[in-house]
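$ run holo --ligand "magnesium ion" --emit tokens
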Amino acid sequence: MRIGHGYDAHRFGAARPLVLGGVVVPHDTGLVAHSDGDVLIHALCDALLGAAGLGDIGRHFPDSDPAYAAIDSRVLLRRVVASLHERGLRVHNVDATVVAQRPRLAAHVDAMRATLASDLAVAVERVNVKATTTEGMGFTGRAEGIASHAVALLEE
Ligand code: MG
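-- output --
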């Protein structure tokens, strides 16, 4: 078994849909990023790459590369999973925590789990997504952006 951890944060302010865990969440602003700004998937990719000893998402998909401009982060996630499979690694389970004061995410968590499970090629029971606020504290509490943590366990 191999364990990995990932963290990411993005700022609100983009005139694009808010996408979290591959799901469009209705909100008045999206997240600023070179890609679609899916902070949950970015943290998850880093957790998977970390578990495999493969560095981080910035090394594999540099934000200086126009090929990744506004890219659907699910494409990146599926590429990460493919590179794990090539190395004989499979996802055992993942767990993520999205830190957002708003919007409220509880109603979207099951859709995120199903979407991520599909890209990870695992059963939905092996994918957990949690959402929390920081009770108004810090940059997430002031609703300046959204952060996400993720951990992943891989089987060799
Ligand atoms: Mg990111």
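-- notes --
The beta strands are 2-14, 18-20, 23-25, 30-31, 90-99, 127-132, 145-155.
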